[in-house]
Amino acid sequence: MTTQTVTSAVAQQDSSPAALVRKYRTDFATVLPSHIKPETWLRIATGALRRSSQLAHAAEKNPTSLLVALLDAARKGLEPGTEQYYLVPRKTKRGPEVLGITGYQGEVELMYRAGAVSSVKVEGVREHDTFAYNPGEHDRPVHEINWRANRGDLVLAYAYAYAKMRDGATSNVSVLSADDIAVILSKAEGADSPFSPWQWNPKAMWLKSAAHQLAKWVPTSAERVWQPDGPPLEAPPATPVTLPTVEDVVDAEVVEDWPTTPADTADSEQ
């Protein structure tokens, strides 16, 4: 058996999630925004799979769900497995699978790339903070914090952005109450999974929810269509990509066990 034959046999046996990502690297590179380096993005994706045994397990059992999540992250130009774009392993009736969720930092990044805003502020309000915002009276929230005191529990989340307009106008303000967040949480896919950021980093998801509402009034772009001190950049046309089916990848055996605890995926709150 030649060295080339051995190398080929090993390559065929490598059906790990990281190998799957490398296999479809051309597809991901096709949809990534032009300012994102494909090799860097691929290293981040494979690194996320190596850091979390639960994520790797779910990806191995349902590789198509991993590809769906990664393709969504690639189209948005966000880093998978980070605060920009979460990769969440979860259990379903079909077995383990991977769910992609745009994070707070990802929502804000997409606003900045469009070039219409000079700054975006997203903040949580706690019960002992002073907060006031009356549409028509205030152009932005008035939020005062006593950093030396116990601020209490989160009660509100708000977001606002400064648009790059000649008159210096402020965008609409997104303010969500605890009740609003509860409704969003009840509809959030996979939120009950112990690996979901709704469970281990709820503050980030409050902020993400406010930023997501803000995106209805502020331009967003996966492509960087604006650059400091320069002319707008022309975004290239979108390229359609056909996602492989389960049969194209590997056979997915459905199992209910998880290798370890959620601690592998839980980053510290920022």
Q: Could you give the order of the helices and strands?
A: HHHHHHEEHEEEEEHHHH
Helical percent range?
A: 25-40%
Oligomer: single chain
Strand content: 15-25%
Question: What Rg, in angstroms, do the CA atoms define?
Answer: 21 Å
Shape annotation: globular
Q: How would a textbook summarize the main sheet?
A: 3 strands, antiparallel
Average predicted local confidence, pLDDT: 81
Provide the low-confidence segments as ranges.
Answer: 3-11, 228-270
Structural class: alpha+beta
Q: Could you give the count of β-strands?
A: 7
Helical stretch count?
11
Task: Report strand order across the widest sheet.
Answer: 3-6-7
Termini separation comes to 54 Å
How are the secondary structure elements laid out?
Elements: H1 3-13, H2 17-23, H3 25-31, H4 38-51, H5 53-61, H6 63-76, E1 85-92, E2 95-102, H7 104-114, E3 117-126, E4 130-132, E5 142-144, E6 154-163, E7 174-177, H8 178-187, H9 197-200, H10 202-214, H11 246-249
Helix pairs in contact: 2-4, 3-6, 4-5, 5-6, 7-10
Overview of this structure, please?
The chain has eleven helices and seven strands. By secondary structure, the protein is α+β, with helices and mostly antiparallel strands. The strands form three sheets. The protein has a three-stranded antiparallel sheet with strand order 3-6-7. A two-stranded antiparallel sheet has the order 1-2. A two-stranded antiparallel ribbon has the order 4-5. The longest helix has 14 residues, at 38-51. The chain is globular, with a radius of gyration of 21 Å. 35% of the residues are buried.
